[in-house]
Design brief:
Layout: E1 2-11, E2 14-24, E3 29-33, H1 40-48, E4 55-60, E5 66-69, H2 81-86, H3 98-107, H4 124-137, E6 142-146, H5 154-166, E7 170-174, H6 178-184, E8 187-192, E9 195-199, H7 203-238, H8 245-257, E10 286-295, E11 298-308, E12 313-318, H9 324-331, E13 338-343, E14 349-352, H10 366-373, H11 382-388, H12 405-417, E15 423-427, H13 435-447, E16 451-455, H14 459-462, E17 468-473, E18 476-481, H15 484-503, H16 527-565, H17 573-598
Parallel strand pairs: 3-7, 3-8, 5-6, 6-7, 12-16, 12-17, 14-15, 15-16
Antiparallel strand pairs: 1-2, 1-4, 8-9, 10-11, 10-13, 17-18
Helix pairs in contact: 3-4, 7-8, 16-17
Length: about 600
């Protein structure tokens, strides 16, 4: 469907992409990964036609359509939400698409009452969702998505996952949301040092394979560096000896012809960043009783009651606009409220908000900003810490006033990491962090011996970090014990039961997951029934394992065929038919796997 053929791209004589080649086939879902500045967005813009390559070609099938969601875009203010989204159906029978439009807009978090609101009333994040809705409704052959989850809450991200998995469109996306790309994409392309590395696996598997490749590259690089050093020493030692003139000239020519290996040696994966020891607080850092917050006639939440114990790590989740940040501001004393909110004895709060970056001293450099607050042994690791958060090398000497909004937010996060506190409140801390930086932050938070409240939509970041979830919605705050995936599993059950209550009116037990007829419970099954159920379970597990093995074998064949077809001389009708046959077999096996897994 799309061929990237020996494409190179330079900006001001600086190479960004260097002779890259790969294919994207119909219905493929591909994750594009790499460090900030590696060239991911540049590649998307090349494919979208916004840039032209310095050399090479990008070949698209005839009549192929592309939908591109950039990180930054222009918006129109003179239409309502409905009118703006309806522009994608211009010239067509709009009535045919109304239901699909409604499903898409609601799936992305809007409510029906929003449909007639002017677009100018929505924040930048919500307007990004409007553009995403328009692109999805066009059903392009290829979707190019640049950080599509940055402005979505957990429910909307899950909806988008389901949409993309069911969509007939091919997808090429850039995202730092590991769970999202793992759930959507079965292929990962990494850009590093201008080159690409193509893996026919999801992101989690890619990380393991990349580690192996990186270790091999480092060994090859080190061996070559030793060879270069030995050769240069030989040349210097015998440069002026006539008896060695031939050998010296041979070695010089050898070095001139040598293709120098490059490898990304920056590796902060083992950086062990820790918060300073938390001063001991009282047993209950936060107690909330009958809390209510209104903005004029609009009630944000009411009758909120919960207590957070010392050392607990909890998440605030829910749709945007349901009061998560509002409650945080109440805790911080930035908003008034009704009810009781008590901060415990000896509580020292460390707070990260999106506007935290505005409090930085613009005349300090990045290094000076961190050096000012760092104490003890951590001062010897400032350069490493800055590198882990994408301020390596010369970037650490930049003045704060020249940093972008995202860079300032990352710098504010680093500063917070180094200041002693025993109650950390983080409001969307991962929005401007790449995966490596998020791993560093998560490890530090897991080791933090104080109390944590984290507002986030990043499931992978919250997984293994929090042990309790507070869900905001409909004016209420509900407590869920367990981690983020425990909550999501429970929430899906509740959502299904909510559908049941619309059919079977008046049975409140269905919402909580309790059966209308609870007389037939597992505890009353006889031994024979339990034995049969166990046997059936083992049989299904065996079938799933066999199907997964078959998929893995077929995917290996697919990878071999893709390598074969990357060469023009192998692009025969017979080879393409064989490749399509393998793809069809994979789709069939995946369908079997889904049936077995869901049943």
């Amino acid at each position: 469907m799309l061929t990237i053929d020996h494409v190179s791209m330079e900006f001001s004589a600086r190479p960004v992409l260097d002779d890259i080649t790969f294919l994207i086939n119909r219905k493929e879902r591909v994750a594009l990964v790499g460090k900030n500045g590696a060239g991911k967005t540049t590649l998307l813009r090349l494919i979208a036609g916004e840039y032209q390559p310095t050399s090479g070609r990008i070949a698209r099938e005839a009549d192929m359509t592309i939908g591109y969601l950039p990180q930054v875009m222009l918006f129109h203010d003179d239409r309502t939400l409905r009118e703006e989204v309806m522009t994608v159906f211009a010239g067509e029978d709009e009535a045919r698409f109304i239901a699909e439009m409604d499903r898409t807009i609601i799936g992305l978090g809007f409510e029906r009452k929003d449909f007639e609101r002017p677009c100018s009333e929505f924040s930048g994040g919500w307007r990004m969702r409007i553009e995403l809705a328009k692109i999805l409704l066009r059903h392009p052959d290829l979707l190019l998505l640049d950080e599509p989850t940055n402005h979505l809450d957990i429910e909307s991200i899950q909806w988008l996952e389901d949409f993309l998995k069911a969509s007939p469109s091919a997808v090429l996306m850039v995202s730092h949301d590991r769970a999202f790309i793992d759930n959507v994409c079965g292929r990962t392309i990494e850009i590093t040092l201008g080159r690409i590395y193509d893996y026919n696996v999801n992101y989690t598997r890619f990380v393991a394979l990349r580690k192996e490749r990186h270790e091999q590259q480092v060994r090859a690089y080190q061996n070559q560096q030793k060879m270069i050093q030995d050769t240069e020493e030989f040349i210097e030692r015998f440069r002026y000896k006539a008896t060695k003139a031939v050998q010296v000239q041979s070695r010089i020519k050898q070095l001139e012809k040598l293709e120098r290996l490059e490898v990304d040696l920056e590796d902060t994966s083992r950086l062990n960043l820790r918060f300073p020891p938390a001063p001991r607080s009282g047993d209950f850092p936060l107690i909330i009783e009958d809390l209510r917050k209104d903005f004029g006639s609009h009630n944000v939440f009411h009758d909120v009651n919960f207590t957070i114990r010392r050392g607990e790590k909890v998440a605030f989740v829910g749709k945007n606009g349901e009061g998560k940040t509002t409650l945080v501001k109440c805790i911080m004393g930035q908003l008034d409220y009704l009810g009781n909110l008590k901060i415990g004895h000896n509580v020292k709060i460390g707070y990260f908000a999106q506007n935290q970056a505005a409090l930085l001293d613009e005349n300090k450099t990045v290094f000076e900003t961190i050096d000012y607050v760092a104490v003890g042994d951590i001062r010897t690791k400032i350069r490493d810490i800055l590198g882990a958060f994408m301020f390596g090398g010369e970037a650490s000497d930049k003045k704060v006033k020249v940093l972008s909004g995202g860079e300032r937010s990352r710098l504010a996060m680093i500063r917070l990491l180094l200041e002693p506190c025993n109650l950390l409140i983080l409001d969307e801390p991962t929005n401007h962090l790449d995966m490596q930086s998020k791993d560093v932050l998560k490890a530090a938070l897991q080791a933090f011996d104080g109390t944590l409240i984290c507002v986030s939509h990043d499931r992978d970041f919250l997984n293994g970090l929090v042990t309790k979830v507070y869900e905001f919605g409909g004016g209420h705050v509900r407590e869920h014990l367990g981690g983020i995936y425990d909550f999501l599993r429970t929430r899906k059950i509740q959502s299904l039961n909510e559908l049941n209550t619309r059919v079977e009116r008046g049975n409140p037990r269905l919402y909580s997951g309790e059966s209308a007829d609870n007389t037939q419970t597992t505890s009353k099954q006889d031994y024979a029934a339990q034995k049969a159920a166990a046997a059936e379970k083992r049989k299904k597990e065996r079938q799933i394992a066999e199907t997964e093995e078959a998929i893995a074998a077929l995917e290996a064949q697919q990878a071999e065929m893709e390598q074969l077809l990357s060469l023009p001389e192998n692009q025969t009708q017979e080879n393409f038919q064989k490749y399509e046959s393998i793809k069809h077999q994979i789709e069939q096996k995946l369908y079997e796997w889904e049936l077995l897994s869901e049943s």
